[in-house]
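Support case: calcium ion complex. Customer-provided input:
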Amino acid sequence: AKNAGRNTVRFYDPELHRAVEARFELESELRHALDQDAFSVHYQPQVDTSGAVIGAEILLRWKHASRGMISPAEFIPVAEQTGLIVPIGRKVLRAACEQLAAWKHQPAFRDLTLSVNVSARQFRHKYFVRDLAQTLEATGAPGHRLKLELTESMLLENVETVIAHIEELRSFGIEFSLDDFGTGYSSLAYLKRLPLAQLKIDQSFVRDVLDDPNDAAIAQMVVNLAHTLDLDVIAEGVENDQQRAFLFGLGCRHFQGYLYGHPDTLAELEALVLRQNDN
Ligand code: C2E
Ligand code: CA
Ligand code: CA
Ligand code: CA
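Agent response - structure generated as follows:
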């Protein structure tokens, strides 16, 4: 349907015209940003039941010269459509591996894991496995501290390729988490075939988990499914203690969200870990 849009611009529609122009502008700006190294990464803590930081999710940030910080929600879709997600994603993985390698020699940080978001187009790329293996090798990063977050939508096409890539990368110790689980098309049939380590309860279910029985039921289902399949489960978007307590009651043991920390610089993450170690 995405590609059909491009071929069906037959008459002049000012709104569509503007949208197409904005997309092309964003594309050329993304290319420029890649050349200029205008991307950086932020780290959001992930904690266990005691509140101790066990790792972080890496979230991409784009510092635009005139528009300031641009959210990945805005530019990732264009990066995916244009294929620019491949070189951009490579940089993010490189940053993660360099960080894991640096932490290897620092006792306070060496057990931390890093979770990296990977787009479907990036993950299916024929050189994805080769590139990541080279990056692990070049940086000396411990593969078992790296977690890749895949999304359900990735399973709509080429499931076999996805499974093959997961299996190859698992031989380096890399683990896999299914992000945004429950928001897309049901893929329960695939789920048992995927060698995952973790399911992530999407923030859209966490937001109203206290008030909306449907969201609570979905969160419970994800936890139960994870336990049945012997997977770890983490809730994202946890903003207050009531949500955390409710999710804990459902059996969730790992948490991420503003309650524990916003996505922030490496220095902030490390300071948080060090403060905890002092107590
Ligand atoms: P996501 O993977 O579902 O990431 C969670 C989003 O929720 C992040 O938005 C994060 O900042 C935000 N968040 C975290 N805690 C809370 C909370 O307590 N409350 C609320 N309301 N929001 C919270 P962000 O950083 O804007 O990223 C948006 C999306 O962009 C991500 O969603 C992910 O799909 C994508 N993305 C980010 N970095 C990358 C990347 O390096 N590669 C790829 N392919 N996609 C990325
Ligand atoms: Ca994610
Ligand atoms: Ca998510
Ligand atoms: Ca999301």
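The two ends are 54 Å apart (CA to CA).

Case will auto-close in a few days if no follow-up is received.
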